[in-house]
Design brief:
homotetramer, alpha/beta, TIM Barrel, eight-stranded parallel beta sheet, 37% helix, globular
Chain lengths: 283, 283, 283, 283
Amino acid sequence: MKDVSESDLTNNIPLVALKEGESTKPVTVAGVEFGGNDFAIIAGPCTVESEEQIVEIAGAVKQRGAKMLRGGAFKPLSFPYRSDSFFELGEVGLEYLNVARKTHNIPVVTELMDIKYLDKLCENADMIQIGSRNMQNFSLLAEVGGSGFPVLLKRHFGCSLRDWLGAAEYLVHYGCKGVVLCERGITAPHTHVVTSRFIVDLQVVPAVKELSHLPIIVDPSHSTFRRNFVPHVALGACGVGADGIIIDVHPTPEKAAVDPLNALTYDAFETLVGKLNNVKKVI
Amino acid sequence: MKDVSESDLTNNIPLVALKEGESTKPVTVAGVEFGGNDFAIIAGPCTVESEEQIVEIAGAVKQRGAKMLRGGAFKPLSFPYRSDSFFELGEVGLEYLNVARKTHNIPVVTELMDIKYLDKLCENADMIQIGSRNMQNFSLLAEVGGSGFPVLLKRHFGCSLRDWLGAAEYLVHYGCKGVVLCERGITAPHTHVVTSRFIVDLQVVPAVKELSHLPIIVDPSHSTFRRNFVPHVALGACGVGADGIIIDVHPTPEKAAVDPLNALTYDAFETLVGKLNNVKKVI
Amino acid sequence: MKDVSESDLTNNIPLVALKEGESTKPVTVAGVEFGGNDFAIIAGPCTVESEEQIVEIAGAVKQRGAKMLRGGAFKPLSFPYRSDSFFELGEVGLEYLNVARKTHNIPVVTELMDIKYLDKLCENADMIQIGSRNMQNFSLLAEVGGSGFPVLLKRHFGCSLRDWLGAAEYLVHYGCKGVVLCERGITAPHTHVVTSRFIVDLQVVPAVKELSHLPIIVDPSHSTFRRNFVPHVALGACGVGADGIIIDVHPTPEKAAVDPLNALTYDAFETLVGKLNNVKKVI
Amino acid sequence: MKDVSESDLTNNIPLVALKEGESTKPVTVAGVEFGGNDFAIIAGPCTVESEEQIVEIAGAVKQRGAKMLRGGAFKPLSFPYRSDSFFELGEVGLEYLNVARKTHNIPVVTELMDIKYLDKLCENADMIQIGSRNMQNFSLLAEVGGSGFPVLLKRHFGCSLRDWLGAAEYLVHYGCKGVVLCERGITAPHTHVVTSRFIVDLQVVPAVKELSHLPIIVDPSHSTFRRNFVPHVALGACGVGADGIIIDVHPTPEKAAVDPLNALTYDAFETLVGKLNNVKKVI
């Protein structure tokens, strides 16, 4: 049985497929351009922990070169139990993001898991993140697409490029005005001894550029889950031609409420931004 | 970095984990027992195509040994475009299932993708199927769990057993009274030349039996996507100790609206049921 | 880029491909038929530990239904260091196998890793096992094939069916008179939490039957690496239509020199053989 | 069952494991340094096609920045049949490599598949490549290691980092004086629609740097099998911190005897070398 060929695929994704002679079409969200000349850097904590925390981090990452703030108000968990050290603020987290946004004049992207918080999110942020686990939640894609709001669409760790572009096509078909793809690691057999939980698929960046006009960024934090790997993978993402990164930064990473193993300190982030801008310049 | 150990896992799934001395706890849905002495056989078309079609098939599969009817009113598709030959009936499909159910006195399981159809589904069917792509749609799991309705929980083709049992824990935590797991194929690197799209993971059956008290059945049709493999994999599932199967059956498989490559004819189904019952008896 | 289609594949494997109207061609090795009416059962220890051990086990497994004896004189290890508890007897192990073979009149299969032991192996055993790691050691395949000796060809845990049949074609092309395939587990992303190291690919059995006339057996011991899974997977292998199994049996499994986690006791083996023969009868 | 932890691993690889306070130890082969300040660039055709071809390419790639010449005299093939357009020169190919080496004063690396050609290879080249398929051919590793000759050890596409470092330990244990690792793509489930046959695992570069003192380079040609991806992946490899690349270059790529889909032209190679040197400088 043959796999689906490229032409079969592009026939199924008329809105996001690259046409003859085209290249990446930039998407601009609240002044931040993805897929243009800049390398778009999104930074912030994994999770919004308090108003003070998110406001402070917003200022710190903006000053060091971030163009957009990340931070989760809703967090998908593999098990239904929250603990003292692993929680989510929910709606109030969205409000704190908005305070940080206004205080430091920096746009915000944050995850939506349930359609009932769509309006609230749109009032408090600039871009909706669809997480890995909901990449093929087609009801959510249809309603989010219908809102017209810009979307950062993460790839499911078990899905092919074909499925990912299919999900993007849903968003645009239902009305989404700006879709940016985000590679965040895949499961591969080779991951399971002495690396991290996922392997980042950097090769998917040129693959996307060959098939689609959508910009694509990389998440080196949640793909590798290992602080030491993050700067290397971020620089690799820039090298392969990604349009930006989204990265966990925390003033005291080891005390982060969620995912303390992958966040960079302010200093490490600042050093990385310098190198990223240099690499972007020379390629 | 070490992977999560078994004890770490079972601590996270107190409701579905096997306790010392326990074994599979049977789940009974409208008189059909999963995990008891019988081998539960669910059969029917991939998709409800018309009232006549589903009523006819319901009678035909019941007569040949099926204990429950399957049939999709809602169909998740990788791309947002329906064609003449690939469609879904939606709510009216649920009503047709109910007609078939009453005409032939056979319980029905059917997929739910959007919470807004929950009540309608519960009025017309006996068991909710959560499909592969929504296995980690936690909002859907919470609301479906809260309904108390029995659930057939398919495994995502890219997810580990750990993630799958975590999803089951969500359902039970929110109130689900009867969860049955369904293996439906995983993506593996080895699938990609000259077998089918997925590989069925039959080894997961004894793995589930070691970790959880939930019954587990196998879908040989959507895992293999190849009619010739279906009876072999169904018999293999019985051999490894699965509690049942869910299988596509169609009077004229090559004319099935969806997935014409995997459905069995009535005759092939009848032959298979005979063999399954014999294998179940001798092991 | 399209994958290789079935016709592309079968053009590359003229000697092992199934021709129109054919089915599995039985291979007989020292009176043991693979691919005929019987379900061929090979049993024995992972490793030859001493003359007494292998002679005793040979008698015990033959009495309980094994048709051929397994036992490693050469053992491939991931690291170059042997320990007191993990060793190999090498050439003298081959001689002990021969003693067991003659004492109990049971044929022997054992692994060859280096061509320099080919003659010695052929004097002392009846069938050469090519292990997973040497499946694509083309020099070894060419020389072993040239000997005309029967071969049990294990699948590499990271290789597709296409590559496996290519390796079988090498053997036959160079003169091998009887090739039997052996599935022994694949690495898949889903293996890496709370199952075993590999997943057995039982679906490959009907896939082989569709493409090749070679018999195929399954190794439930080294694929699952977990004693509790072994009988289930063995029965599943019989259910999907495999032509036999090769299985680790040890009088005191927990004291086995190599792989103590997967061997069955004599009693467990005897019970399993009874069930296997029953399943074979009814399908 | 837990996977092997990092400390379990490093105990098994005392010779190649990174010790406290160490970092990559440079390996120098015929004046080319791997793991030092330079980014080592190896280039040449997939296969040695004629004396004229290899001599010409050697000069062309050296002039454009390559430090070492690649070119296969022996080619592993999935099937035993050669065609007019897919062949190998064998021993005479080694001699042609030597002519090119002397003519242009450029060191040579070439693959060894059979121990019987070891001496001949050592007379005509500077470094032995162990290919993906022979990564766990332990007899070959032992004998090649015993020769003391430097080795470029490619990773098997289905093997974990643990297995790869185990193979490197074999080489050093048996006497190899200089091992350089080479990532050349892994099979992953996500590869199988509309990308290439393999996915390059760039994340393995920082993983190696954390566990071992061995230098590591990347093969962007055989991992991606797609000319358009090659420069992107090469730059990504430089970004993540690899110590070099090995790359297919051909004067008329579409006419290459083997793998015509991935070789770069001289011009494309020259442009890439310029960018690589710039990226190396800024990170």
